[in-house]
Amino acid sequence: MDTQRLARVVALLPLIAGVAGCAAVSSTTVDCTGSTIFSVSPTTATLDHLAPAVQNQVQFQGAITHSAVQGCAEPALAQIEYATWSNPDPKNIQISSSFDVTNGMASCLGATGTPVTLTGVFSKTSMATPDNKATVTLTCK
User: Fold this and answer.
1) Cα separation, 33 vs 19, whole angstroms
2) How far are the Cα atoms of 26, 69, 92 from residue 29, in angstroms, in the given order?
3) CA 3 to CA 39: how far, in whole Å?
4) 44-90 pLDDT, tens digit each
5) 128: helix, coil or strand?
6) What is the 8-class DSSP label of residue 51?
7) β-strands 36-41, 116-123: how paired?
8) What kind and span of H or E run contains 22?
9) 117 pLDDT band (50/70/90 cuts)?
10) How many Å apart are CA 41 and CA 60, to the nearest integer?
């Protein structure tokens, strides 16, 4: 019985070595760094300043994702990033720059007449560049 067990192990050795060999080859030949993608969503919105609070709000969110590389582990899900928002029309638009779940939440206080460009500066030390700026437009009617 021990001889049969030994024969099975010996018969499986080439298969085990082959699998281990593949893992060793792919880990040394595939560059798994991928690329970092920064995006903001949505990029435009239109709100009615006379609507109730929930219908008069939009949240602009920045996110970092990493591209998938064939032969590598799947990248982590998107990472939400907070921004410091600049608002050229504080009379008619309110936007949160708080570093919490309200970040990027905008509401209309009055009609703007034309789209207003809001700029978010997203700072993250793990990103390739220290500051990533994004612009979004909000129209308040």
Assistant:
1) 23
2) 5, 12, 55
3) 62
4) 999 999 999 889 999 999 887 777 778 887 766 777 788 899 999 99
5) coil
6) S
7) unpaired
8) helix 2-29
9) very high
10) 6
Q: Which residues pair with 38 in a beta bridge?
A: 64
Strand partners, 54: none
Cα separation, 112 vs 141, whole angstroms = 7
User: What CA–CA distance (Å, rounded) separates 55 from 110?
Assistant: 14
Identity of residue 80: I
Q: What is the pLDDT of residues 8-23, one digit of tens each?
A: 555 555 545 444 444 4
pTM passes above 0.70: no
Residue 52 phi/psi, 5-degree rounding, is -60, 160
> Residue 20 pairs with which residues in a beta bridge?
none
What is the per-residue DSSP string for 88-111? Answer: S-TTTEEE---SSTTTTEEEESS-
Structure tokens at 112: 């703007």
Query: Which residues are within 8 A (CB) of 72 and not within 5 positions of it... i.e. 6 or more apart?
Result: 30, 32, 34
